[in-house]
Amino acid sequence: MTPESVAKLAKRGAQIEVEAGLGLSCGYPDAAYTAAGAQVTADRHALLAAADLVLRLRKPPLEEVALLKAGCVHVSYLDPFNERELVHKLAGGGVSAISLEMIPRITRAQKMDVLSSQANLAGYVAVLLAANHAPKIFPMMMTAAGTITPARVFIIGAGVAGLQAIATARRLGAKVSAFDTRPVVEEQVKSLGAAFVKIDLGETGQTKDGYAKALTEEQLAKQRAGLKKVCAESDVVITTAQVFGRKAPIIITHDMVAAMKKGAVVVDCAIESGGNVEGAPHDQVQDRDGVTLVALANLPGRVPVHASLVFSGNLTSLVEEFWDKEGKKFVLKLEDEIIKGCLVTHAGEICDPNLKARLGAA
């Protein structure tokens, strides 16, 4: 939470306690939170044990779940489909856990959509990382010493991160092309000044929430074959393909990297969910036969001021949407479509039927 968000909630009557040092990486001293109306304390265990509503970024360590009191609401990233033990512990502790990744993509919930706000920044950072590691500049330059041709940047995946990467690479002067399994995004790609690469994969599409549907192995093989030629011609390749609740699909194979020109750069934005590049090292930069593979985790965290600004805004919007002005508290409206979509555990049970089927009853 930023001090500005704290002040908004304090005006609504919320009693806010903030962990000491929370905002230091973004330039917010503890005094700024105190001035905004919060109480600052260094006792993390006491904070967790007393809270009716816990707002945080990452999923809680298992040992901290036991500190939460029964009936409290815990809001954070949870990665629930891959965190069986954590979800069962939250249910067993009587915690009402909201998974930020599962907030439905409806108009009313757009202001709470942390995936979009953070992916937007990740796409921007990915291009800057590529430009920093590339041995050539992005824009065309005509000089007395000769003409420098623009770098060729290829973006795979035209979701929020991919579209921001396209826009940022274009601003830097690169010649940009992009690919996505969803034909519906072609118009968006072209509107940003990039070329849309078409590969016939048969029937594809998107989920009701706007995400790309997972491809079959046969479709993935066709996709890789089609992408190989484009990658070989590119100076920079940025991959952004992820499927919620599953390991990221392998899009760039070893032989595709081997076919790329020396000095090329590949940025894997999906490394936190397994990576789109075969054998990509988690949170590392690797030289692979002259190709620089950038597989750094937490890309939004490299611009922490604005990552925190928008994340805090998302959380504040969620709290305000379900704030009871009279009782001055957060009310968990179980029949509301937003809460129904993102509530993972409540009253000792796993709520989401798909999650329950995958993880088993609490």
Task: Give the SSE map.
Elements: H1 3-11, E1 17-19, H2 30-35, E2 39-41, H3 44-50, E3 53-55, H4 62-65, E4 73-76, H5 84-92, E5 96-99, H6 114-133, E6 141-143, E7 146-148, E8 152-156, H7 160-171, E9 175-179, H8 186-191, E10 195-196, H9 217-233, E11 236-239, H10 254-258, E12 265-268, E13 284-288, E14 291-295, H11 304-321, E15 323-324, E16 329-330, H12 337-342, E17 343-346, E18 349-350, H13 353-359
Parallel strand pairs: 1-2, 3-4, 4-5, 8-9, 8-11, 9-10, 11-12, 12-14
Antiparallel strand pairs: 5-17, 6-7, 13-14, 15-16, 17-18
How is this structure best described in words?
The chain is of the alpha/beta class and 362 residues long. The chain folds into two domains: 3-102 and 304-348, Rossmann fold; 118-302, NAD(P)-binding Rossmann-like Domain (Rossmann fold), CATH 3.40.50. The chain has helices at residues 3-11, 30-35, 44-50, 62-65, 84-92, 114-133, 160-171, 186-191, 217-233, 254-258, 304-321, 337-342, 353-359, and strands at residues 17-19, 39-41, 53-55, 73-76, 96-99, 141-143, 146-148, 152-156, 175-179, 195-196, 236-239, 265-268, 284-288, 291-295, 323-324, 329-330, 343-346, 349-350. A seven-stranded mixed sheet has the order 10-9-8-11-12-14-13, sandwiched between helices. α10 links the parallel β11 and β12. α1 packs parallel to α11 and α6 (114-133) runs parallel beside α7. The longest helix is centred in the middle third of the chain and has 20 residues, at 114-133. The chain is globular.
